[in-house]
Amino acid sequence: MNKETTNEEIGENQEQEQDQAAKAQEQLGELVKAVFHNGLVALKTHFEDVEGQVVNQEVYGPVFMYQVKDDSDNAYVTGFLLRELVARFQSGKDPASWLASFFYELMKTPGGKMLPRPPASEDEAKAMIDNVLVPQCMAAVREEFDGLDVHVGLQWHNEYGPVFESGFPEIKDGNNVCAVPLHLLLTQMLLNRDPSEIIIQGLYNIRKEHGLES
C-alpha cells in the first residue's frame, strides 16, 4: 500500500512539474512575442523599412535580430538579448531612441553592415578573440580612461571561464575590478554591437560607487 501511495505521489509530482514547466514555457513565449513586437514598433518610429526575427542562442536564450534600411536601401543588422530589451522597455527611458542609436552608429559604415560571419571552429573563435576582440576592448578602455591608471587583461573565473578584467589600482578599498566573460563579449561582437561598451559602463559604475564620478 505504501509503495502504491508513493508511486501515486511521484506521478502527481511529475505531472505538477510538467505543468509548471509548460506554463513557464508558455509565459516565456508570450514575453518573447511581446518584446519582439515592441522592438519593431519602436524602430518604426525612426526607420521606414524594419524587419526582424528571433533566434535562440544556446547560452543566452532568445536573441532579437532587427534589420533596418537607409534611404539608399542599404541594410544594417544588429541584435539584442532578451534581458536587456526587457530592462530598457521597463525603464521608461525612451527605448525607441536607444534601439535606433545602434543603427545610426552602424550607418556610419557606408553600403550597409550585415552580421559578421561566426567562427566555424574553436580555432577560429580563439583567433577572433585573440586578434580582434581582446585588442579592441583593451584599446577602447585605455582610450576612454586616458590619463588614468587602468588595468586591463585576461583572467580565469571558476564559474564563467575566461573573462576580460579591467579595473583601477588606485581604488584600494572595496570592488575595483569589472570582469566580463569572453563568450558574452564575443556574442556582442557577432551581433554588430561594440563589446567594449559593457566593460566601460561597468568601470564607470565602479568609479561612481567610490565617488570618483558625478
Terminal Cα span = 70 Å
- Compute the gyration radius: what is it? 22 Å
Coarse morphology: globular
Could you give the order of the helices and strands?
HEEEHHHEEEHH
Instruction: Write down how many β-strands occur, each being a DSSP E stretch of 2 or more residues.
Output: 6
Strand content: 15-25%
Low-confidence stretches: none
Please list the strands of the largest sheet in the order they lie side by side. 1-2-3
Q: Give the structural class.
A: alpha+beta
pLDDT averaged residue by residue = 91
Main sheet attributes: strand count, strand direction, barrel closure: 3 strands, antiparallel
Number of helices: 6
> In which range does the helix fraction lie?
40-55%
Describe the fold and architecture.
- There is one protein chain.
- By secondary structure, the protein is of the alpha+beta class.
- 51% of the residues lie in helices and 20% in strands.
- The chain is built from six helices and six strands.
- The protein has helices spanning 2-43, 82-91, 95-106, 122-144, 182-190, 196-209, and strands spanning 50-57, 61-69, 75-81, 151-157, 161-167, 177-181.
- The protein has a three-stranded antiparallel β-sheet with strand order 1-2-3.
- Helix 1 packs across helix 2.
- It starts with a helix and ends in a 5-residue tail after the last helix.
- The relative contact order is 0.09.
